[in-house]
Design a protein that fits this description.
Strand content of chain B: 15-25%
Radius of gyration of chain A: 25 Å
Number of helices of chain A: 12
Mean pLDDT of chain A: 91
Mean pLDDT of chain B: 93
Largest sheet of chain B: 9 strands, mixed
Distance between the termini of chain B: 91 Å
Oligomer: heterodimer
Distance between the termini of chain A: 72 Å
Helix content of chain B: 25-40%
Radius of gyration of chain B: 27 Å
Number of helices of chain B: 14
Shape of chain A: elongated
């Protein structure tokens, strides 16, 4: 950014830490942007004359006489239809050259939608994956993360979901994405001929971590443009939110804040909620649906990041390697879509809720049988049948490579019930048994 | 003269203000950012510096910006017309706000000042009255909304004159009161009260003695909550806290329900907005929304207002209690409120307690829960505020500060267990960990004897023993194997499963099973106990499990059938037949 005539230039920095600088300045607004020695920074604290700024790219190489220029405004993104098909960095600048976007400059991290003006989400988003559609149906306006270990193919599954879901726009917010994964996304979208529906804001592992803090707000400002102004159905993909939270922790640590659980800032819940709550079903038909990734360490969901996320999002999807079938499945026990009740049995066939529950219950019986087997006990006839059912259920329905319609999923479930169980063992309402039972 | 000030420091939503005069703790002030006027509350004063928490985003705020102190604490507006409204944490009416987004500094009136109400006086000229006494009433929805002597008026007054029955606005004078020195005061239908101060206009607060019906079997039958009592629902995410709270808010036997959505998901509130205007309260035949007030400060709304939202809800609850009504206040989730306190305390650089929560967290929670209760009003009538809060323990660990502090303050504990939720046993209220202290109250026991059946409490404890013994039997089976234990162990286990599936589990999404009136609960519970008293004969353990699965299925079909319908009795007959065929000879 070039200096404008009326802007005051400061050249004396008092304090420099790894991520922040402090200097004496006047007339500065909270949250305002500044350029510090050519690097972008944001005001995070003002005490009288002392202004503290967080330098996104880190303070390496800054000197006490580096030039500080205040921009007089909070971070903004220029929005227009031309965003589609483009790749941007965390500041909203086009990657790989290309013309900058012309359009209205909007502040990122803008205000909240009045809850009273929201509509209840009611539109099913079909993905073809039964572990999602059958057990954990996703609805437009929902926010849901994948909880996955770093070795699981979460980015691939997410890309798949994004392409199958019939969204008008897909907005990718990549935080700490490896360059390989970034290229993977690009290639998958390109191969699907979907590039013109996609807007990407990417911070890769090669970029400074604190820059990541801007990515979700950039992505969601673009999403709000398409959903609110254009009435489009927008799907936002955020990966990986754990790295976003880590960046929050870095900044709060540098500002000497008292950490709470797992060295995370005390405001982690509110910080994450501000992002996820942008998911919305609007009265004009537009919607923002957020699918995120939160990587876990060793499957531990009690860590502050997945824990706070779970309390904010409307469910979570767990990926697990199933040793019986050798496939990656969507774990039916730990996954949950809170909004599924709004569509299952209403937008889908009437037997959906009960079939879904019966499947999971029987799968739980199989898990018990397996424990018994491991402890060296004899299995009953029922146990044997439950185990066989579990194998088929895992292979034909839970595996992430399944791609069928929801009716087919239900029919498959009934076929499995008929094959392995008696009518009273599945414990479904009598009327439904009569109608759908497959002997 | 109002005290004025200038902004002298900004750390997120904490602003340090240099004040030119007296400043009170918890005083409200307005911070001006350009044309926007944002509400804030004083939370600490050091010398001339007032530390205020701004109920909005401080983006763009500058050093030297103007601040105006208001000379009073944050107050709720109390008047006819609160029912069916949707407020934010500061009692702004969300419905009245323009635009899709909540603009910064949006302030809307909590009630309609133009509307006229059909008013009838209740007091007489010459009556001696004190704060909280009823002067008259208006019909608000179907509630007799009492117009009371304002709570702030201390001492005894004489009614000088009363406005005759007729249609009036809330700001019209409906009575003139005189104090002992002859000073006269005009009373209108609207009054204000600081939300963080309890309303204490009652004679006494006796121990709760009546049970509040919720239609949820695991609560009413197993761990009932008393009218005027307190309870809390801790549980990891996904355990069904919100579904349970919504079920209670739809079904509870209360005159007024106040739902505080405190730092939770907006879509959950939207669900209430969408459903409640449609749903009918089966007890009164009125729309649910007519008795409901929603205070909605979702997780993305300003943190400081989140802290206030629970107090706003409680104050409105106490206001309706003073009219002799049964009020249920629910907050989802009180952990978010505690986290808001933590964020503030953190920014004030206070020395932290456990998990970085403020040291006085326990006292704050206890003080809040203490505002509930059954009260005897000045005129001998009773009113009550029952409070049910959810707690979202970090990592599902019940040994964290919010859960522990709440456990000391609340009398009912409904622990939602991850294990039950994983196996889809909803509501996931753990039958062994959960408790209701009210079962130990002799007043409550005699109430239950009278309203449900003789020796009801001992029957409840019997059920708990069945669950306990079933669990022990199951542990033995898991250690020794199916064949390694006598068949009686299997029978014992399956009897507890029967109780679990038929009584403890309930389908909140089934139109019939969702709400189970106490009469029906009694019948089902006694039928289950009856089966548990019998001894059966089985050839082997597989026959035992097969039999009970079939029996459970019949009972569940009965739960799904309309109360006392032909189908209902048909399943009952089938159960009785099945039981008598399987009895040991």
């Amino acid at each position: 950014m070039t200096t404008r005539a009326f802007q005051k230039v400061y050249t004396k920095i008092d304090n420099i830490t790894k991520a922040t600088i402090t200097l004496r300045a006047t007339g500065v607004g909270n949250d305002e942007l500044a350029t510090v020695g050519g690097k972008l920074a944001q005001v995070v604290k003002i005490m009288g004359e002392n202004v503290t700024l967080q330098v996104f790219a880190g303070t390496e190489g800054l000197a006490t006489n580096s030039e500080v220029v205040f921009h007089g405004e909070a971070p903004k993104l220029r929005v227009s239809d031309n965003l589609a098909g483009r790749f941007f960095n965390a500041y909203g600048e086009p990657l790989e050259g290309g013309e900058p976007i012309e359009g209205e400059a909007r502040e990122i991290g803008g205000p909240t939608v009045n809850p009273f003006r929201r509509l209840q989400p009611s539109e099913l988003i079909a993905t073809g994956i039964a572990g999602i559609d059958l057990n954990n149906t996703i609805v437009s306006g929902q926010k849901i993360p994948f909880f996955a270990d770093p070795d699981q193919p979460y980015n691939a599954v997410m890309a798949n979901v994004a392409l199958r879901a019939k969204a008008d726009k897909i907005i990718l917010g990549g935080m700490g994405l490896t360059n390989d994964d970034f290229l993977y996304f690009k290639q998958v979208f390109e191969n699907a001929g979907a590039l013109d529906r996609i807007v990407s804001f990417v911070n890769t592992t090669e970029n400074p971590p604190v820059e990541r803090l801007l990515v979700p707000d950039m992505a969601l400002t673009a999403a709000e443009y398409f959903a609110v102004d254009k009435g489009e159905k927008v799907l936002v993909l955020l990966t990986d939110m754990t790295l976003y939270a880590d960046a929050l922790a870095i900044v709060s640590n540098r500002m000497d804040q008292i950490p709470s659980k797992d060295s995370m800032p005390g405001s982690l819940y509110s910080d994450l909620a501000k992002i996820y709550e942008k998911a919305v079903q609007l009265p004009n038909g537009g919607s923002i649906t957020i699918i995120a990734v939160t990587t876990l360490s060793g499957g531990d969901i009690t860590h502050a990041i997945p824990d706070n996320t779970g309390y904010i999002t409307e469910g979570q999807l767990f990926l697990r390697n199933d040793s019986d079938t050798g496939k990656v499945i969507v774990d039916p026990f730990r996954s949950l879509s809170r909004l599924k009740q709004l569509v299952i049995g209403k937008k889908t066939r009437e037997d959906h809720p009960q079939v879904m529950n019966a499947c999971v219950r029987l799968y739980a019986d199989a898990a018990n049988a397996k424990t018994k087997l491991e402890n060296g006990f004899d299995l009953s006839d029922y146990d044997e049948r439950a185990l066989q059912f579990a194998h088929d259920y895992s292979e034909k329905l839970l595996a992430i490579d399944v791609n069928i319609e929801i009716e087919q999923m239900l029919d498959t479930a009934w076929t499995l019930f008929g094959k392995y169980f008696s009518k009273d063992e599945v414990a479904i309402k009598a009327e439904l048994i009569e109608k759908y039972w497959k002997a | 003269m109002k005290t004025l000030g200038r902004v002298n420091g900004i750390i997120s939503n904490i602003v340090i203000v240099k004040a030119d005069g007296a400043v009170g703790q918890n005083e409200i002030c307005y911070v001006y950012c350009g044309d926007t006027r944002m509400m804030a509350e004083v939370i600490k004063v050091i010398g001339d510096d007032a530390y205020v928490q701004v109920y909005d985003s401080t983006r763009g705020l500058k050093i030297g910006d103007k601040v105006e102190f208001m000379g009073h604490m944050l107050e709720a507006t109390l008047a006819p017309g609160l029912l069916s409204r949707n407020y934010d944490g500061l009692q702004n009416d969300l419905e009245k706000m323009d635009g899709l987004f909540i603009a910064r500094g949006s302030i809307t009136e909590p009630i309609d000042f133009e509307r006229k109400w059909e008013y009838t006086p209740l007091a007489n000229v010459g009556d001696k009255v004190t704060a909280g006494d009823w002067l008259g009433q208006v019909k608000e929805q179907w509630v007799d909304h009492k117009i009371m002597v304002p709570f702030v008026m201390q001492g005894t007054y004489t009614v000088k004159s009363l406005t005759p029955a007729g249609e009036y606005k809330v700001t019209d004078t409906i009575a003139v009161l005189a104090d002992k020195d002859g000073n006269e005061y005009n009373v209108t239908m609207v009054q204000k009260w600081p939300v963080k101060t309890p309303i204490r206009c009652y004679v006494e607060k006796p121990r709760p003695s009546r049970v509040m019906e919720t239609g949820v079997r695991a609560i009413d039958t197993f761990n009932p909550i008393a009218e005027g009592g307190t309870g809390f629902i801790p549980g990891p995410f996904g355990a069904g806290k919100t579904v349970l709270q919504h079920a209670i808010s739809k079904q509870a036997e209360a005159d007024v329900i106040i739902i505080v959505a405190c730092g939770e998901r907006a879509n959950e509130v939207v669900e209430i907005f969408a459903e409640f205007p449609e749903l009918i309260d089966s007890r009164t035949g009125h729309k649910l929304m007519e008795r409901t007030i929603i205070i909605c400060n979702t997780s993305n709304m300003p943190v400081a207002a989140r802290e206030t939202s629970v107090y706003t809800g409680m104050t409105i609850g106490e206001y309706y209690r003073a009219m002799g009504l049964k009020v249920l206040v629910m907050a989802d989730s009180t952990s978010r409120w505690a986290q808001a306190l933590r964020e503030m305390s953190n920014r004030l650089e206070e020395l932290p307690g456990q998990d970085a929560f403020p040291m006085d967290l326990s006292a704050i929670i206890a003080g809040f829960y203490a505002r509930t209760g059954l009260v005897k009003l000045n005129n001998g009538q009773t009113g009550s505020v029952t409070f049910l809060g959810t707690v979202s323990p970090a990592g599902g660990n019940l040994k964290e500060p919010v859960t522990e502090s709440t456990k000391k303050a609340a009398r009912c504990f409904y622990a939602l267990s991850q294990g039950r939720a994983d196996s889809k046993r909803y509501p996931a209220i753990d039958p062994l960990d959960s408790y209701s202290k009210y079962l130990e109250y002799p007043e409550v026991a005699s109430y239950l004897d009278e309203h449900i059946g003789k020796d009801w409490v001992s029957k409840v404890y019997e059920g708990k023993t069945i669950v306990q013994r079933g669990k022990e039997a199951n542990d033995q089976i898991n250690i020794l194997g199916d064949d390694g234990v006598p068949i009686e162990y299997h029978e014992r286990f399956w009897k507890s499963e029967l109780l679990d599936f038929v009584i403890l589990q309930q389908d909140a999404f089934d139109s019939i099973d969702a709400n189970c009136p106490i009469e029906r609960q009694k019948m089902m519970y006694e039928m289950v106990l009856d089966v548990c008293h019998k001894s059966f004969s089985f050839t082997d353990f597989e026959a035992c499990s097969r039999y009970f699965k079939g029996l459970i299925n019949l009972f569940r079909q009965m739960n799904y059938s309309e109360w006392q319908s032909e189908k209902f009795f048909d399943y009952k007959r089938q159960i009785e037949e099945s039981v008598s065929n399987q009895l040991s000879k």
